[in-house]
Write a structure and sequence with these properties.
With 470 residues, the protein is an alpha/beta fold. The chain has 19 helices and 13 strands. The protein is 45% helix and 13% strand. Bound molecules: uridine-5'-diphosphate. Uridine-5'-diphosphate is lined by residues 16-18, 21, 289, 291-294, 318, 348-352, 368-371, 374.
Length: 470
């Protein structure tokens, strides 16, 4: 194809691993299909990335796959996610418009903008320069439905909470049987952002803004499997523009840029763990990882660690250096001694590869959406211990609808961890969850193959939305 005639997609992820990863997967797919790619990193994220790699810049992945920095005027540390979202919106609306204008003067000029739905600055900028724009929702459809219900929860007077005691007095167990496609939700399952007494909560306001943007957008992409979230996706379709379910994206990529994209993480990736897994028996290892940013107390890490020590199985445990806010996690000598024959603790791992490894028997997770999808791709059953945001929704759906895992009590105790791990590894309910994990793996493979739901949806997205072919 003549380079100047190439379609050119500009992708803008929210600066966090769980957002950058799926946008990168989509970028890789579009690159395979002949798109020129501009992948935009906000300055703050870019700076942290290059610092962690001790380098000055992130090289292009191919001549027609470039990274661009977006000035965001953000400090290195921010108090919370709500502030990060609102400041990013405030500071990037103008800079992203300027960036798009600059790109429009080059060849090939951009032909579409694919914006992470959290990056509410993108729609305004794309419209300003006359480019079609699509919103990419990187979490689950049930998480989307949760956000969609925020306004109604406020109108019905259910949130904000009257006072702090409402987080503990059973109020969060209020059933919400009116949320479309998710009849068994309780208030506690909709999103932890709602556990607030603040009538002007920045995060809630930002989420409502995201939903308004989605309603005005040309199309919405969700990294989900239609078969898994059919009821919710169908319900969303009545409120929103066309929805394209194209997940799990990990099944749709050909991996041609994989070696390079794996370098795009802040933490040093331990690849040795794959060799360690090679020497373990099939389905014998418990893998524990709570994602890229959620945090817990030191006490909770200790309970999880001792639960693993007591369960009796081999385990691979990722203890991210910043998993406990403001404190370095130092594991007890006694714990290390007791588990040295069967435990491996690392700071970060190539999770997609780990979850595809035949030695994996179980994944203990915070129920982040990418982690759940990667577990589906690997056919691995799960224990969920949700921490923040829509992880609670994912966990509820998984336990009540999808059937491929169980929930660990919020008040995490070593005995309970060990007991649930044993139940999932060798107990009767574990067998059923494993069977469902394999069923979803198969369905996800079918969806990604020619004629499958995700594959057809991707084709439609590319042809009718991104290339504007009739
Ligand atoms: N991840 C990884 N190695 C790790 C931890 C996480 O590669 O040790 C990746 C994981 O594969 C996933 C992403 O980081 O793609 C985390 O996204 P998720 O939605 O599960 O959770 P979040 O980090 O957003 O809470």
């Amino acid at each position: 194809m003549d380079t100047q005639m190439k379609p050119h997609a500009v992708l803008l992820p929210f600066p966090a691993a769980g957002h950058v990863n799926p946008l990168m997967q989509l970028a890789e797919i579009l690159h395979t299909k002949g798109f020129h790619i501009t992948f935009v990193y906000t300055d703050n994220f870019y700076r942290q990335l290059v610092k962690s790699k001790s380098t000055d810049s992130i090289p292009s992945l191919a001549p027609d796959f470039q990274f661009v920095r977006l000035p965001d005027n953000l400090p290195d540390t921010l108090p919370d996610i709500g502030t990060k979202c609102t400041l990013t919106h405030k500071n990037c609306t103008e800079t992203f418009t300027t960036l798009l204008k600059q790109l429009m003067e080059k060849s090939p000029a951009p032909t579409c903008v694919i914006s992470d739905a959290v990056m509410t600055c993108a729609m305004h900028a794309a419209r300003e320069v006359g480019l079609p724009e699509v919103q990419f929702w990187t979490a689950s459809a049930c998480g989307f439905m949760g956000h969609h219900s925020f306004e109604e929860l406020i109108q019905r007077g259910i949130v904000p909470l009257k006072d702090e005691s409402y987080t503990k007095n059973g109020y969060l167990d209020t059933p919400l049987d009116w949320i479309p496609g998710m009849k068994h939700m309780r208030l506690r399952d909709v999103n932890t952002f709602l556990y607030t007494t603040n009538p002007n909560d920045t995060m809630i306001n930002h989420c409502i803004e995201q939903m308004k943007n989605c309603q005005r957008s040309g199309a919405i992409i969700i990294n989900t499997l239609y078969e898994l979230e059919k009821d919710v996706v169908d319900a969303l379709a009545t409120y929103y523009p066309p929805i394209y379910t194209i997940g799990p994206l990990a099944n749709m990529t050909d991996g041609h840029l994989k070696d390079n994209t794996q370098n795009l993480t802040f933490f040093e990736e331990n690849k040795e763990c794959l060799n360690w897994l090679d020497n373990k028996a099939k389905s014998s290892v418990v893998y524990v990882n709570f994602g890229s940013h959620a945090s817990m107390t030191l006490e909770q890490t200790k309970e999880i660690g001792w639960g693993l020590a007591k369960c009796g199985f081999d385990f691979l445990w990722v203890v991210r250096p910043n998993i406990v806010k403001g404190e370095k996690v130092v594991l007890d000598e006694e714990f290390l001694e007791e588990t040295k024959e069967r435990g491996l603790v690392v700071p970060w791992c190539p999770q997609e590869m780990v979850l595809k490894h035949p030695s994996l028997g179980l994944f203990v997770t915070h129920a982040g959406w990418n982690s759940l999808l990667e577990a589906i791709v690997g056919g691995v059953p799960l224990i969920c211990w949700p921490i923040v945001a829509e992880q609670v929704t994912n966990c509820r759906q998984l336990c009540k609808v999808w059937g491929n895992g169980m929930e660990l009590d919020k008040d995490v105790k070593r005995e309970k961890v060990a007991e649930l791990v044993r139940e999932m590894m060798v107990g009767e309910s574990g067998k059923e969850k494993r069977r469902m994990a394999l069923t979803w793996k198969r369905k996800a493979e079918e969806a990604a193959s020619a004629g499958g739901s995700s594959s057809l949806s991707l084709d439609r997205l590319i042809n009718y939305v991104l290339l504007k072919n009739d």
